[in-house]
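Subject: Sanity check before I submit

Could someone independently write out the structure tokens for this chain? I want to compare against mine line by line before I put it in a report. The sequence has 322 residues.
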Amino acid sequence: MTTAPTPVPAPAAVDSNGGAGTPGTATPASEAAPTANRRNRRSGNRAWLGALPLMVFFAIGFGLPAVAIAIGAFTTSSDAPGGGGTFTLSNLSNSLQGAYFTALLGSVKLSALTALIGTVVGLPLAQAVATSRFRMVREAVLSGSGVLANFGGVPLAFMFVATLGNAGEVTTSLGLKKYGWSLYTFDGLAVVYLYFLIPLMILTITPALEGLRVQWREAAANNGATTFQYWRYVALPVLLPSLLGGYVLLFGASFAAYATAEAMVGSSIPLISMQIGDALSGNVLVGQGNLALALGLDMIVVAGLVMAVYLPLQRRSAKWLS
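---
Independent answer below. Compare away.
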């Protein structure tokens, strides 16, 4: 006589929380999805709370001054004949005319030139750092670049005046004056700016260079590509967004520099930052006290355009190098 097979109990189903459910049943996906969505929303809320102090600092340190500048740029100053607080476009129109517009163009020209030179010179230096076999050399260069990128103002101007000024040690020892060299010109100021722009470029582009895959170089070599062809068709196209982003960052750093140029050349070279300093000190016509705010608004607009180009480039490069 045969016996009926003993029924085997179905295994217990595991619910979305990791625990055992009712034996022989499974938790429907429609019930697990809302739980996961609620958990993700709670995690997102906690992330915003962590960034809240930075957002408050940004709103107080940058948002309120920007609003004050925007309001003052479109209103008359307290010394105006009709009184202050009246809406006007004269401040903005005057900031884009005559010497003020020349100073704006001078700042853009200086920033574009120094940013280009800093990008071209900084890329091979950063590549040498990224591919160095000596860890101490790499750390020393990056640490030094971090210091030099933030070194500016009066100390930087004094250092160059003492070395490359008209009576500087390097100028007199090499006889640079007979070749037409002068530190207190547009070219001299560009040399000074490169002192902190090149280290800034090294810091900016080194992470992107480290993100280049070794497999890409090996694949190019296996297909018979030379080093030049690898950089022309593989590395540079991948690095192009990071390079353009670094250029934009250097442009912004040069465009906003003030103390170094003020201490070294004063108003002999037309720069928008120098014009803002003169306007804030009262060196304007009667009734144009808010002209400095209009000039500041011009700089904010230029900086905003720079950041509008920089952020998409950074997101695009992150897709390849992440």
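---
OP: Matches mine. For the report I'm noting this point. The CA atoms of residues 149 and 200 lie 5 Å apart.
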